[in-house]
Amino acid sequence: MNLLKQANEFVVANKPHIDEQYKPTFHLAPEYGWMNDPNGFVYYRGEYHLFYQSNPYDSKWDTMHWGHAKSKDLIHWEHLPIALAPDQPYDIKGCFSGSAIVVEDELVLIYTGVSEVNGVVQQVQCIARSSDGIHFEKSVHNPVIDQSNLGDLGTTVDFRDPKIFKRDDTYYTVVASKTTEDNPTRGQIFIFFSSDLIHWSQASILIEGNAQLGNIWECPDLFELDGKDVLILSPMNMPQQGNQYQNLNSSIAMIGEVDWTNLSFKLERYEELDYGLDYYAAQTCLDNQNRRIVVAWQQMWERTNVLDEKQSGWSGMMTLPRILSIEDNALVQRVPNEFYEYLKPVVEQTEILTEFEITDTSFQYAKVEATTNLEQFSIKIENELEKYVEITLHNNEVKFSRLNVTPEIEGKETNVSERFIDVQPIREIEVFIDASSIEILIDGRSLSNTVYFTKPVNTFKFASEDIQSKTIILSSMK
Fold this sequence. Notes:
Blueprint: H1 3-14, E1 33-44, E2 47-55, E3 65-71, E4 78-84, E5 94-103, E6 106-117, E7 120-130, E8 137-138, H2 147-150, E9 160-167, E10 170-178, E11 187-194, E12 204-208, E13 216-225, E14 228-236, E15 252-259, E16 264-272, E17 280-286, E18 292-297, H3 306-309, E19 314-315, E20 322-327, E21 330-334, H4 337-340, E22 343-352, E23 355-358, E24 365-374, E25 377-383, E26 388-394, E27 397-404, E28 418-422, E29 426-434, E30 437-442, E31 445-450, E32 457-463, E33 469-477
Parallel strand pairs: 1-19
Antiparallel strand pairs: 1-2, 2-3, 3-4, 5-6, 6-7, 7-8, 9-10, 10-11, 11-12, 13-14, 14-15, 15-16, 17-18, 18-20, 20-21, 22-33, 23-32, 24-29, 24-33, 25-26, 25-32, 26-27, 27-28, 29-30, 30-31
């Protein structure tokens, strides 16, 4: 049985029947079925390719395939056939997360193949190649990294999510894992190198975590950014520290320096990548403009799967891509200029505002900018049913709340409706609204959230006691 052909035929037959009530327009979401981690985010032949973890048969997680889409502008996505299906003994339990690299005009994927031997899970690293960027052939040498590469350093029980890159003439991949001797365990990242993508070195431990960094790490990505080495990863069960790491599972950026001789990472500091309710498994792409662009899964594990409960036929989406930089020793994220080119102004007003309200208008982007620092405000984004989200700034703390929107989302965390971020007095806040997505950028820091409005938002309310000039802009997509 051709499992890849079967999966693609199923999607084609069933995608006309999905419920599109919460389907975003400028965020990537699946045609049919389930979506989670971004995989293989790469710039290839003048287009961005983004693969993702997919269950093409249902709107919940199950045996993983690789979905696939491409875009010229990071806004409009074209769905392509499913790229990988679990059809080999080494990946029969799933083609888990991985990455992509361009090699002499071929698109090469590296992914985690999952199987089970005598009741024990085996996770190994595998290669697939394509000459057209659409149809992929798995290597006869698979798996290319397995227990023989790990030796005594680890096991293949939790050993996944390879991120590949090239430095000088050598290929490297970082792979996520956990320590084996501790209870609880600690996160751990292995690094391997190769000259041909088939024969890989023995494992080196790039970095190990501690009790404050969760008990297992996922989805690593190692790259150079503005003179620093950055390792992003997703720790599970990371303890909350004030207003940081409020989700059960987090995404962080470690900033430091790699010792390429000893293959070790000297950690200087780390920070959370996103402070919202729904952000996980971030992966980056270096494009033809030398921009380091990051995208993540805009959902969270151990939460109510609203779309599956509503039998929508699909579930999951990606965040809006963002350009990463380091400025004044802080990680900054900005939406690419391509997005703003598609905006059509609905309202633009500049004056000394303490209150502002507009109703019966359609908007997908809102911006508040002040001439000097904002110290307090309240923003409500509401629909005709008087359901709303609220963003408030008070005492150098921004709060986002989806408490007043139903259906209610539940989860293992104490609070799954609000998130907080500590800020300095701010100059600008942007809000991106796309059906069930609300993303907020505050002077380069982000909060990503899913919010299931049963009716589109049509009201924007702003209140502040600051006596200064402010500009409020509302726009829709062209």
